[in-house]
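WARN  no MSA supplied for this record, continuing single-sequence
INFO  ligand: adenosine-5'-triphosphate
INFO  echoing inputs
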Amino acid sequence: MNAVTQFKDPVAVAAAAEPAIRFEAVSKVYSARNGDPAVTALDAVTLSVAPGSIAGIIGRSGAGKSTLLRVINGLERPSSGSVFVDNVDVAALDATDLRTLRRRIGMIFQHFNLLSSRTVFDNIALPLELAGTPKATIKARVDNLIELVGLADKRGRYPAELSGGQKQRVGIARALATEPKVLLSDEATSALDPETTRSILALLRRVNELTGVTIVLITHEMQVIKEICDQVAVIEAGRIIEEGPVYQVFAGPRTDTTRTFVSSVTGGELPRDITERLTASRDGARHAVLRIVFTGENATAPILSRLSRSLDIDVNVLSGQVDEIGQRPFGNLLVTIPANQETVGAVTGLIHAHGLKAEVLGYVA
Ligand SMILES: Nc1ncnc2c1ncn2[C@@H]1O[C@H](COP(=O)(O)OP(=O)(O)OP(=O)(O)O)[C@@H](O)[C@H]1O
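INFO  complex generated
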């Protein structure tokens, strides 16, 4: 893909000219081996992450997410193109400089990767010990981190004595020990139940707000993107197929893959009996199926009563949900209206006039 894909959070971009992380036409090809063909895991990825933001990369299994994360901290080298962290070309660093850079990049993992023989305190202290930090500094910093992640009563416990959520809290504290500028999250909540997931995401958001650390997370769950990300990029077969502020991508997904991800959390999926009867043609249809997306201050506009009143039509609600995305209200409503062309035109016109989005999904008899 040649088009430049860039996160465009106008506020963040204005505040900081230099992105925290920049991918320039990054490709990664794993070479053929033992008769298996070569794999293009990343295909000309160009992407910027604003400092202090939380950027989510979402994609299905095998899309290239882990590879994308691993080229940021130099665990993989791009086959072509460059990755810059704080304007430093990661691939150009020698072993010593790469070690220094990695201290500025924390990482958390799906399966926590804690050392079972070390206590909570000692797991968190480990990166500082490796960096040769004086003991008193280690103690002060680890004590602070233990408070921050809410594990004050678990400092002497071993990983086997902790719940999954508590283990991830240790993982987060350990990743923050060297005061990194960037935190990479590799499916950090995938092994956790929904409630624990929410509490870990809330902790990450708090850490981001308190320390200003830039967070890049990879996930296959749109719920994660919805809960904490400012920006999202959708990756498929190694390419970024869509990106932008989370709110914008939720309001107007442009590809089928993104639409599927979005509808998995916005209640935007059609009831099955409607999906089975949905056609693209108006011929013989009595109803048009319409998706109305409510955003921002318009999220609570009484659009349905206005439609039926001013156009004198029946509007039937199939499903609807009002949510919060990127800390702004967001509603998604599926309705049927009479199928004739004039009505559909008038309805969509009125909806657009109210600053909302409307999309005809198809027709049913
Ligand atoms: N070290 C490697 N050698 C060869 N092929 C690899 C290697 N690592 C990843 N791949 C291949 O590259 C592609 C992208 O893999 P990657 O792990 O980046 O995807 P992913 O989106 O993280 O997948 P998942 O969600 O399943 O972890 C896959 O086809 C995978 O098989």
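Residues 30, 39, 41, 59, 61-67, 220 surround adenosine-5'-triphosphate (CB under 6 Å).
INFO  checksum written, moving to next record
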